[in-house]
Amino acid sequence: MTQENALVIPRLIIGLGNPEPKYDRTRHNIGFETVDALARDWGLSWQENKRFQGLIAEGNAPRGQKIRLLKPLTYMNRSGQSARSVLDWYKLPAESILAIYDDMDLPVGRLRIRLSGSAGGHNGMKSLIAHVGTENFARLRVGIGKGREKETISHVLGRFTAAENEAIEKVLDLARKAIELGLQEGLPKAMSLYNNQSVELSPPP
């Protein structure tokens, strides 16, 4: 086992979301929003690649680590097709993935990194696991909070409140710091430092 594998350092960061403008900045698209923020902070530009059925940004993270960011344009429930194409083209193992996506079981203001696990009912992750053939890749879940019972779809496809948006900006910064640490020292170190951190929502006026 190489040192990089032992440290679990991602080489392909995939943000999950839906491509149409009507889904921009919805809760379900927080994966897209996170990788957009990474690309912006790291000075990387998105290029559409029809082979990958997605937008890809390649370059170096702040400490010089080679990294690729991916936004599948296949719609959420077929995200794995795009990921599989990228892995095959660059001959990357599935274990090199860090997938970023929304999680209703986490409150707004929280994020959680795991090195493997099930899809947990998330359609984008179900597709990713099915196409890459394993659950053994890292994921960063960003909390979007629970909606009212029977309103799950309208909740995930809805937008954050003003107070939540303020918290999400801080969460995206936390995510960037966690990922940068993961690229430098491995994701287990990032888990230990960032999984228990939280951003408090501002009280309503």
Overall description:
By secondary structure, the chain is an alpha/beta fold. It contains 7 helices and 7 strands, in the order αβαβββαββαβααα. A 7-stranded mixed beta sheet has the order 2-3-4-1-5-7-6, with helices on both faces. A hairpin with a 5-residue loop joins strand 3 and strand 4. Helix 2 crosses helix 6, helix 3 packs parallel to helix 4 and helix 6 runs antiparallel to helix 7. The N and C termini lie far apart (54 Å). The N terminus is likely disordered. Keywords: Cytoplasm, Hydrolase, RNA-binding, tRNA-binding. InterPro entries: Pept_tRNA_hydro (IPR001328), Pept_tRNA_hydro_CS (IPR018171), Pept_tRNA_hydro_sf (IPR036416). Its main location: cytoplasm.
Q: How do the strands and helices of this protein lay out in sequence?
A:
Layout: H1 3-7, E1 12-15, H2 30-42, E2 47-49, E3 54-60, E4 66-72, H3 79-90, E5 97-103, E6 111-114, H4 123-132, E7 138-143, H5 152-156, H6 162-185, H7 187-194
Parallel strand pairs: 1-4, 1-5, 5-7
Antiparallel strand pairs: 2-3, 3-4, 6-7
Helix pairs in contact: 2-6, 3-4, 6-7
Strand order of the largest sheet: 2-3-4-1-5-7-6
Return the structural class. alpha/beta
Helix content: 25-40%
Query: Any idea what the shape is?
Result: globular
Rounded to the nearest angstrom, the radius of gyration is 16 Å
| Strand count | 7
Low-confidence stretches: 1-5
Total helices: the number is: 7
Report the average pLDDT across residues.
93
Distance linking N and C termini:
54 Å
SSE pattern: HEHEEEHEEHEHHH
Major sheet, described briefly? 7 strands, mixed
Strand content: 15-25%
